[in-house]
Amino acid sequence: MTAASPNGPNATVGPRSDLTAVFELAQQLRVDSVRASTSAGSGHPTSSMSAADLMAVLLARHLHYDWQRPDDPGNDHLIFSKGHASPLLYAMFHAAGVVSEEELLARYRRAGSRLEGHPTPVLPWVDVATGSLGQGLPYGVGVALSGRKLEHAPYRVWVLCGDSEMTEGSIWEALDKAGRYGLDNLTAIVDVNRLGQRGPTELGWDLEAYANRVEAFGCAALTVEGHDVAAIDKAFEYATQSERPTVILARTVKGQGFSEVADAEGWHGKPLPSEMAERAIGELGGVRRLTVRGHGPRPYQPPARPAAKEVRLPEFELGEKVATRSAYGKALAALGARPEVVGLDAEVGNSTHAEDFAKVYPGRYFQSYIAEQQMLATAVGLSVRGWRPYAATFAAFLTRAHDFIRMASVSRARLALCGSHCGVEIGADGPSQMGLEDLAMMRSVHGSTVLYPCDANATVALTAAMADLEGISYLRTTRGGYPVLYPAGEAFPVGGSKTPRSSADDRITLVGAGVTVHECLAAADTLASEGINARVIDVYSVKPIDADALARAAEQTGALVVAEDHRPEGGIGEAVLGALAERSVAPRFAHLAVRDLPASGTSAELLDAAGISRPHITDAARRLLSG
Amino acid sequence: MTAASPNGPNATVGPRSDLTAVFELAQQLRVDSVRASTSAGSGHPTSSMSAADLMAVLLARHLHYDWQRPDDPGNDHLIFSKGHASPLLYAMFHAAGVVSEEELLARYRRAGSRLEGHPTPVLPWVDVATGSLGQGLPYGVGVALSGRKLEHAPYRVWVLCGDSEMTEGSIWEALDKAGRYGLDNLTAIVDVNRLGQRGPTELGWDLEAYANRVEAFGCAALTVEGHDVAAIDKAFEYATQSERPTVILARTVKGQGFSEVADAEGWHGKPLPSEMAERAIGELGGVRRLTVRGHGPRPYQPPARPAAKEVRLPEFELGEKVATRSAYGKALAALGARPEVVGLDAEVGNSTHAEDFAKVYPGRYFQSYIAEQQMLATAVGLSVRGWRPYAATFAAFLTRAHDFIRMASVSRARLALCGSHCGVEIGADGPSQMGLEDLAMMRSVHGSTVLYPCDANATVALTAAMADLEGISYLRTTRGGYPVLYPAGEAFPVGGSKTPRSSADDRITLVGAGVTVHECLAAADTLASEGINARVIDVYSVKPIDADALARAAEQTGALVVAEDHRPEGGIGEAVLGALAERSVAPRFAHLAVRDLPASGTSAELLDAAGISRPHITDAARRLLSG
User: Fold this and answer.
1) pLDDT at B21 over 80
2) Are residues A609 and A464 in the same domain?
3) Are residues A477 and A604 in the same domain?
4) Which of B483, B512, B531 represents a domain boundary (last residue)?
5) Which residues form the Transketolase-like pyrimidine-binding domain (chains A, B) (predicted)?
6) Which of A15, A178, A148, A153 is nearest to A81 (CA)?
7) ω before B45 within 30° of 0 (cis)?
8) pLDDT band at B303 (very low <50, low <70, confident <90, very high)
9) B251: helix, strand or coil
């Protein structure tokens, strides 16, 4: 069914169009949302229809964007925190003339299509992947932070949120930071359609309740009838002028525009069957062919970044006892000579030593307080604008942001993460503070690089290397001080390993990383005193791991002990086994890892209690050799 | 240095003592916090000193607790959300007469001690492990929920929070649910000492800002001078009478009572050196020997739980196409015949099918809305009171609660978790909704059980088995419907496996779980048509995994292909390699897993694109056999 648009076929809608035309655009977005999802046989038309007026007004009259040049630095940013409303987003792209009708109808949610079920940055107009609710707004805070504090750019950040996702704590971490950072360039638009996936939302249409929360968290709240284009227009105008970040709470109806589903339960995430879709399109006034010609980007020439100064990395003396977390801080401070490097903390910068960077570059250092999810989201948002964020907290507490790390990989974000205080090595603070699952978590992230140095010079080299890695890289650092094993300036290629001990007649290989390298070396000393030459391999690059060196050692020595300060699952031992299996090498094998629940104690006591200390490694080697 | 108490040595303090005596108790808690941490050489005395008056008033006059009978069902619950203030908590235990002075001074933070750096339930008076900030209050909500909605018990739940942790989104998820559930038996006490680990907190002493947030989230806020024992006493009295959950915002001074550190930066997490400790004890009036005799528990005889009805588990016909997520819902609804079983949802119960339980047992089903962290915390809190919570969401979104799952293992909690919509199998919704890292996450949890059934009858058996497992158990379910392979009533022991296809002359073993079992069977059919007999093993128990069956198959067939709908890291392939390495068996090996970033498509298209479908398994087998 095709109906002529009241504005005529092929009419354009823009800032000077009257609001009737904008309403027509909204109806077009609804119709196209229905058509795309019905054609795909899945998707969320009703969640798109509720927000169509909001997005039509934004697209035609308030968004500053050059659709042909999505990389224009002056472009506004539009993030669909409610990523399931992708039919609406793609209908907007169609209205903006960058996605054809054919693509919208024939490719949405199909294999190999860029019009995925939830938006990802394979589309040039999409900054970040969404679809895990409560994440788009936190990312928006990161992008807006860049605009206000780092770029001093004129762009605005618009985030469309669902009302269901307002129960995620991450939303409140985001609004708290938006208020604290004074991000007047950020507007969140909450589509309060009162219906979640399985029924009514917690707060329904109680806009006042939402507004009270928003205001208490330091942002300006504005309530609006979400299908009144004139009211919406005024609200956006207000938000643009506001000196605070603004949250527009729009009362909307799920499925608005089609009486058979409007405000009805049971229609979340369901495309309309073809006959219903026909009736919906009819009720919505038929298919339209409006094209949007909105505002172009505000003029903005990004200031030339100051030329990178020479990076003078710190150097440590052989034998000096240095904690790798301390070396991380010093290396990061040195890397600050590269103007794109930004430091992020979650209130433990004096422990992770991220604070060293803050002392030199306070303007490029952002405090998240204890809000690890927002720290990660800020990092993702900054990476959208080309910054190179380094975010650090305790390895254990990075688990708090696991879903954000996972989604950052879908966003193809480039991030450097550092987790300090790994393993039982931390000592008396006990298991709540021990990163014992972080390697499993970070290894399983798509495209990640996982690094775990055992000394200060390795840490420096790897911290520096992270600035040029694609994807999400992770550096695991240790609390206590251990002797420097490698000379300053030595190369530590990602994917490589070191062999600090070897001989022509090694009978066994001891594999460690971080603190267990030192334990392996001590065990090798003991074994040597018994006439057994042991090779020691430092797999500082846990992912990718040096399969060649491991396979060679396994073939040459025939026996291999892995000791790791981590749970047995998903860590170094399994990485080694995977690498050896790929090479079809199968040495005798022993795997020492933290198998029980640790408590308090000294580092040495806890390494020993966990069975990963030098005597345990020595014993395991002896058993393998006698077995 | 020992000073006589103004109330005489060995005096007792209790509800009828005057407030001067309560203040003396507070000073004792400070002195003992200083002594314990100085003696240990680590710990957080200043964070203990700020909250000492609050806890002295609570301990002497408001907490209803039989210290000799920590399992008394009428006991109040006290949770230190700021777990680093363990010196204060242990000083309270000492004052209550259940921890000796010798233990406090000689054992705190030592190896093998129950007085760990952060409290854990190895102590009988501790419900849950804390130390990852922002978690204690969410757990308190779970305990209070049990008291109000399930037990109708008279106990109160008191949670001591730090001010720094109020920036965690999880705190606001907790307060939102406390308000929504109307938990008038819950009192949170926020020790607003204005100093975090590395400097001033975000909101400093702005009690009004905190109060606005608390009220906006549906709880009553009360501000109080945190060193005025009379004012504190009144505030607790008010909270006890309040018809809403109450948050007492107490203005305090970090290091209160010792002028050299009071309100000073740089003293977080640092024990006082011995000489300073001496001066502190002097300024605090010396060592006291007060004993608390507070209120006993309110009389409460828990109602006898209704006798368990017979559990009539659902049964499915061989060959019937059923989604395992659907079987989970039906099994859970049947398990509801056991009165201790409770269901939890995070707004996706119609997708996970947890809703099936809600339909039969609405009174034992709690909606968390989209707040996965709080869903986990509620589960932990309910498990404290002996309930058997089953909490479900998409496998992908369980990563949101990773830190809570990790800490639940330190709490020795018994939980059943279900993650639906695992892997690329989900189809068109795309990677944001695909659980691809959940096996790595859940395997690395201490003491966890990880289950991944391929058919409906296996799902039923395993869902039922989870009710009797210790620790944290995890069931991974699939979106689409697949044929029932096993007869109803068949046993699926944890740690076992099934071999749905085998012969005396199998030349290769195909290992799968969940959807890939079906792919392996199809591949075995193809191979059989080529004259190659392939064994198929269904490792429905991923942790513990059936090392015997795998090793036997590897030895008998000499070649093994693992196919999994999960990232290659930390999943089934590595679990299999670990099991084989333990048995010193090394077959030729191929590992098919999801190595790229998936997009949208049908299940079949995506399994194929990921290289884990039947033709890929067949090819991998052929390659291994010809290699």
Assistant:
1) yes
2) no
3) no
4) B483
5) 322-484
6) A178
7) no
8) confident
9) strand
Q: CA–CA distance from B137 to each of B131, B185, B246 (Å)? A: 12, 13, 12
Beta bridge partners of B187: B158, B246
Closest chain A CA to residue B345: A198
From A212, which residue of chain B is nearest by alpha-carbon distance? B216
- Cβ within 8 Å, pair B173-A176: no
Band (B305; pLDDT cuts 50, 70, 90): confident
Shared domain for A159 and A104, answered yes or no, is yes
Alpha helices in A317-371 (DSSP H): 324-335, 349-352, 355-360
> Is residue B279 left, alpha or beta, with left meaning phi > 0 and alpha meaning psi from -120 to 50?
alpha
Measured between CA atoms, the residue of chain A closest to residue B570 is: A570
Residue A440 at interface with chain B, using a CB cutoff of 8 Å: yes
Instruction: Assess if residue B7 is contained within a domain.
Output: no
Give A120's contacts (C-beta < 8 A, 6+ positions apart). A126, A129, A410, A411, A412, B430, B431, B432, B599
Q: How confident is the model at residue B3 (pLDDT cuts 50, 70, 90)?
A: very low
Buried b (16+ CB within 10 A) or exposed e, A497-511: bbebbbeeebbbbbb
Distance from C-alpha of A34 to C-alpha of B273, rounded to nearest angstrom: 70
Answer whether B526 touches A (CB < 8 Å). no
Q: Which residue has the tokens 């007047």?
A: A184
Q: Does A310 map to a domain?
A: no
What three-state secondary structure class fits A508? strand
| Contact yes or no for B167 and A443 at CB 8 A | no
A117-126, A381-390, B3-12, B452-461: least confident range: B3-12
Task: Verify whether the Cβ–Cβ distance A165 to B571 is below 8 Å.
Answer: no
Active site includes A278? no
Range of the domain at A572: 498-626
Q: Which run of H or of E encompasses B174?
A: helix B169-181
Using a CB-CB cut-off of 8 Å, the residues of chain A touching B555 are: none
Q: Check CB contact under 8 Å for B111 and A600.
A: yes
Residue where one domain finishes, among candidates A454, A483, A512 = A483
Kindly state the DSSP code that residue A195 receives in the 8-state scheme: B
* Ranges in chain A, pLDDT < 50: 1-5
Q: Does an H or E element contain B274, and which?
A: helix B274-283
* Pairing of the two strands A388-394 and A508-512: unpaired
Q: Are B128 and B209 within one domain?
A: yes
Model pLDDT for residues B499-552, shown as the tens digit of each residue: 999 999 999 999 999 999 999 999 999 999 999 999 999 999 999 999 999 999
Let me know: does A396 contact A477? Beta carbons within 8 Å. Answer: no
Query: In sequence order, what are the beta bridge partners of B200?
Result: B195
Task: Tell me: do B259 and B328 sit in the same domain.
Answer: no
Number of domains in chain B: 3
Asked whether residue B621 carries a pLDDT value surpassing 70, the answer given is yes
Instruction: Write out chain B residues lying below 8 Å of A605, CB-based.
Output: 111
Give the CATH number, domain containing residue A527.
3.40.50.920
Asked if the model's pLDDT at residue B2 lies above 60, the reply is no
Q: What is the ipTM of this complex?
A: 0.97
Q: What is the CATH number of the domain that holds B125?
A: 3.40.50.970
Residues in chain A: 627
Question: What are the φ and ψ backbone dihedral angles of A604, each rounded to 5 degrees?
Answer: -60, -45
Q: Which two tokens stand for residue A558?
A: 């025939």
Residue A137 lies in a domain: yes
Q: Do A441 and B445 touch (CB under 8 A)?
A: no
Instruction: Please tell me whether residues B118 and B167 are part of one structural domain.
Output: yes
The single residue of B372, B519, B564, B574 carrying the catalytic annotation is B372
Establish if B298 belongs to a structural domain.
no
Indicate if B582 and B544 belong to the same structural domain. Answer: yes
**A205 token code pair:** 């249409």
In this structure, the answer to whether residues A165 and A21 fall within a common structural domain is yes
Write out pLDDT tens, residues B587-617.
999 999 999 999 999 999 999 999 999 999 9
| Half-sphere exposure in the Cβ direction for B581 (13 Å, CA) | 29
